[in-house]
Amino acid sequence: MKQETLRFGRPTIPIIIKEFLLQASRDRRGIHVHKAMEIVRVKSGRMLADVDGSLTEVEQGSILLINGNIAHKLSAESAEITLIQVDLSKFIGQKSDDEFAALYEFVLSAKRKPYLATDDEGEIRELFDKIVRAYYESSERGEWYLTAYLYELAAFLYTHSFIVPTAQAGVELEKIRPIVALIDRNYTAPLTLDDLSESVGYGKYTICHLFKAVTGSTVFEYINFLRIRLAAEKLGTANASVSQVAGECGFSSLSYFNRVFKKILGCAPSKYRKYV
Questions:
Q1: What is the chain's mean pLDDT, rounded?
Q2: Do domains 2-106+129-164 and 171-275 have the same CATH topology?
Q3: DSSP string covering 144-207
Q4: Domain 2-106+129-164 indexed as CATH 2.60.120.480
Q5: Quick one: average pLDDT of 55-83?
Q6: Which of 143, 35, 20 is nearest to 82 (CA)?
Q7: Which of 6, 71, 259, 275 is the most exposed place for a label (fewest CB within 10 A)?
Q8: What is the pLDDT of residue 160?
């Protein structure tokens, strides 16, 4: 699986739109993942999408929405498609320099749907067309309309439980601020509940209860999320072996690292590296 870095077509708005013919004879891309959300409309033909391990068929005229950081692959014998890739982070209140940025990403990935397929003739189709028109309008007016339509898209996706606004994901984050700060600084080291308890001054039960109540997940699920995110980056850029990467990211057991990596990213580390 390939971690894809996108180059957006607008300097101030993180969006790119592509129109092309998807053909089996030209298909060279394996399963890949990127931070941006992907919205695909099939203009002609029929497309098959492998999203997070689930296959869904998309007919002519239908629209498929794939959430960010979800492994996916699009294929077809022959299908003409329009594809929008957009990072909606700033449209749901998330800031890349926020001290809780990693935790937001973790919480949102746990709560959101991986994909949404629709053949609805209404709101999403009309919104898709408006976004495309505004994208190709090279003027300040087009920029303003495009920004407005992306906020409208965020609202639509929220009503369909496809995304979770940062404000909702971050309820009562202040209560776990010292826990999160300590984990973010030390997640590659061997961390235990005793270590956390001693450093932040909370009892072990209080740490587990607070973290679960605020995020919906456990402390160690968050630690593993951070470790696997770092491991994916290292596998794509470093020449170290898989076992070396596992150790550098805080895993003492290679078999456990492999299990956690596959659970979070959908494939084994060795396969991930093959496609990067």
A1: 84
A2: no
A3: HHHHHHHHHHHHHHHHTTS---HHHHTTTGGGGHHHHHHHHHHTTS---HHHHHHHH---HHHH
A4: no
A5: 89
A6: 20
A7: 259
A8: 79
